[in-house]
UniProtKB/TrEMBL annotation:
This is Ribosomal protein S6 kinase a, polypeptide 3a. Residues 57-314 form the Protein kinase domain. It comes from the Eukaryota. ATP binds at residue 86. Keywords: ATP-binding, Kinase, Nucleotide-binding, Serine/threonine-protein kinase, Transferase. It comes from Myripristis murdjan (pinecone soldierfish). The gene is RPS6KA3.
Length: 375
């Protein structure tokens, strides 16, 4: 016979935030704590116990340096194949989210492929395919003959990839031109890669579990959804900056590297940018319309990735002009202006401190105190 005991909830967690849909309200056997650990931690532990990065790869010259990491070229000792390795300081940043995103979505043809992961205790080594074709925007600005039709094809490929990520609940949050590269020198759409997911985020339920697209609205707090929507709108804004620059050869909010962060942020905040005269004379009305809607100052009115893909300038790209765009021929100025723009956006602005009594919480407590005293 069965003992008469009260039933308590299992200390385990469901396999996903939408588990009640899977089990239709019935009980289930919770997965063990070990199985709930991030996939990335499993791989890191695997390599830590078997080999070190230097056992398998020869490290070469620097490719790029960031706030939390450094990227170098490396060569596999056994095969002679070239790769890139991103070395992330664990003291400065937890790379588990980036690793997990690359493991889940790196099989997409236009997302950088993660080949291997190592952890030596102080740093994590992410081995990826080597981007031999360089930055997409650099390559485009060096082209003497570049048309709207080509620009539309490039935007389609990138936006289609971003839409895929957004549908999966992933926002990149750092889609600056230096993170969109070519894997080879062909310049084909198939060789475009979105890279560096160091600031990317996955949509999670309140218990920390990943969300699938189907049941998001039922499990995520409204403010989290709002933040996710804002981050997605920021991705589209970045693509709008890229499109503006591809069409004209200059950036919408910075004139050059000498512009101050305050000047750039003021222009961005105003939402004002020019779409008339000069180099814009050779650009179609449809292209201008798309740029204006991607750079809309209000993120709620900005186009989504899906809406960009359905815009006539994208869907009817085979009918766009083939003639060469009249663009500013100064790639070095564009690179400096673009760097200044994203540096201004990413800088940490110190908060303005006010007396404690001015805070919303203090004012609310003050109202309650007055009310209770009156009673």
């Amino acid at each position: 016979c069965f003992a008469y005991l009260y039933v308590f909830y299992s200390p385990g967690v469901p396999p996903s935030a939408n588990a009640h849909q899977l089990f239709r309200g019935f009980s289930f056997v919770a997965i063990t704590e070990e199985e709930t650990q991030p996939v990335s931690n499993t791989i890191v532990q695997l390599h830590r116990s078997t080999s070190q990065f230097s056992d398998t790869y020869d490290i070469k010259e620097d490719i790029g340096v960031g706030s939390y990491s450094i990227c170098k070229r490396c060569v596999h000792k056994g095969t002679g194949m070239e790769y890139a390795v991103k070395i992330i300081s664990k003291a400065k940043r937890d790379p588990s989210e980036e690793v997990e995103i690359l493991l889940r979505y790196g099989q997409h043809p236009n997302i950088i492929t993660l080949k291997d992961v190592y952890d030596d205790g102080r740093s994590v080594y992410l081995v990826t395919e080597l981007m031999k074709g360089g930055e997409l925007l650099d390559k485009i600005l060096r082209q003497k003959f570049f048309s709207e039709r080509e620009a539309s094809a490039v935007l389609y490929t990138i936006t289609k990839t971003v839409e895929y990520l957004h549908v999966q609940g992933v926002v990149h949050r750092d889609l600056k031109p230096s993170n969109i590269l070519y894997v080879d020198e062909s310049g084909n759409a198939e060789s475009i890669r979105i890279c560096d997911f160091g600031f990317a985020k996955q949509l999670r339920a309140e218990n920390g579990l990943l969300m699938t697209p189907c049941y998001t609205a039922n499990f995520v707090a409204p403010e989290v959804l709002k933040k996710q929507g804002y981050d997605a709108a920021c991705d589209i804004w970045s693509l709008g900056v890229l499109l503006y620059t591809m069409l004209t050869g200059f950036t919408p909010f910075a004139n050059g590297p000498e512009d101050t962060p305050e000047e750039i942020l003021a222009r961005i905040g105003s939402g004002k940018f020019s779409l008339t005269g000069g180099y814009w004379n050779s650009v179609s009305t449809e292209a201008k319309d798309l740029v204006s809607k991607m750079l809309h100052v209000d993120p709620h009115q900005r186009l989504t990735a899906g809406q960009v893909l359905r815009h006539p300038w994208v869907t009817h790209r085979d009918q766009l002009p083939k003639y060469t765009l009249n663009r500013q021929d100064a790639p070095h100025l564009v690179k400096g202006a673009m760097a200044a723009t994203y540096s201004a956006l990413n800088r940490n602005v110190p908060p303005v401190l006010e007396p404690v009594g001015c805070s919303t919480l203090a004012q609310r407590r003050g109202v309650k105190k007055i009310t209770s005293t009156a009673l």
